[in-house]
């Protein structure tokens, strides 16, 4: 799908944070919407989707249990 989205899970990216989550969310929304930059009338929906996906990403990574690793710091 989106080859530019990198794995953010610890220990592969131990220092991933909010900026990384938002960047991945932005790439995802761009891919599925087909818009690199939406028109003004679509901006709110686009931005809300990016924020929702970034928040879901943070929740996912915070809840993962990685065997043999301390987990993600954050």
From TrEMBL:
InterPro entries: DUF2277. It holds the Pfam family DUF2277. This is DUF2277 domain-containing protein. It comes from Actinocrinis puniceicyclus.
């Amino acid at each position: 799908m989106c080859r530019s989205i990198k794995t953010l899970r610890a220990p592969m990216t131990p220092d991933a944070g909010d900026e990384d989550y938002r960047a991945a969310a932005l790439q995802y929304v761009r891919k599925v919407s087909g818009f690199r930059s939406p028109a003004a009338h679509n901006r709110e929906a686009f931005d809300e989707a990016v924020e929702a996906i970034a928040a879901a990403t943070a929740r996912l990574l915070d809840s993962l249990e990685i065997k043999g690793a301390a987990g993600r710091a954050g």
